[in-house]
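> call design_seq(struct)
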């Protein structure tokens, strides 16, 4: 339990003494959670929540109900965690010089690859970019089986229009671990690229994430018009 930890090694005391940048993610989360549960200190609980939630990015993408259902969390703790994560997101949004610049698929894989490769269901996301290809935000548009018949092309641009994004990248995962694009993936890409041209929102790529691997449909020329 936390009372068994030396007072000057507890997260709050370490923050006061050493500053917030010296604390691990689990220690910072422990301060937000405030209390543990029977048989589990708040620090051990925070480590479990981070692990089961897929890290900070994973926790950010969980909806409120999913987070609150995690053992020991509940609505009060979930509210504090969500509020803290949203403050962090807004700080990044207000600091464009610190945003990730996307120069190619490797940058997207670094941003999303580890987390999306571990998802048990298929997710389709859009990475919204500004004129300098800096990430504005990442939005999940579909969860579950993603196929061309159920995807409404307009929904893939809704967030880009709201954010005044000038470009976007589609990213989805294959839970099987094999990132090879299907015929439906290619057809969907072609439809989205054409719609982007009409809306003046460039679709720079469509990436498929597998287990430790990725495929760029743009690089393969699948669904994108030839540059020659």
């Amino acid at each position: 339990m936390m009372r068994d930890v030396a007072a000057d090694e507890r997260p709050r005391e370490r923050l006061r003494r050493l500053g917030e940048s010296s604390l691990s993610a689990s220690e910072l989360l422990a301060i937000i959670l405030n209390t543990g549960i029977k048989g589990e200190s708040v620090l051990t609980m925070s480590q479990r929540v981070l692990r089961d939630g897929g890290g900070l990015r994973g926790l950010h993408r969980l909806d409120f109900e999913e987070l609150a259902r995690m053992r020991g969390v509940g609505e009060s703790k979930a509210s504090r965690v969500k509020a803290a994560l949203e403050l962090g997101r807004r700080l990044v949004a207000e600091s464009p010089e610190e945003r990730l610049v996307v120069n190619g698929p490797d940058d997207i894989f670094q941003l999303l690859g580890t987390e999306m490769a571990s998802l048990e269901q298929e997710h389709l996301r859009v990475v919204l970019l500004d004129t300098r290809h800096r990430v504005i935000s990442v939005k999940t548009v579909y969860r579950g089986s993603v196929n061309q018949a159920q995807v409404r092309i307009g929904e893939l641009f809704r967030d880009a229009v709201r954010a005044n994004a000038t470009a976007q990248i589609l990213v989805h995962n294959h839970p099987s671990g094999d990132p090879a694009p299907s015929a439906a993936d290619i057809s969907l890409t072609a439809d989205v690229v054409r719609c982007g041209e009409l809306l003046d929102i460039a679709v720079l790529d469509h990436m498929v994430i597998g287990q430790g691997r990725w495929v760029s449909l743009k690089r393969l020329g699948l669904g994108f018009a030839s540059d020659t």
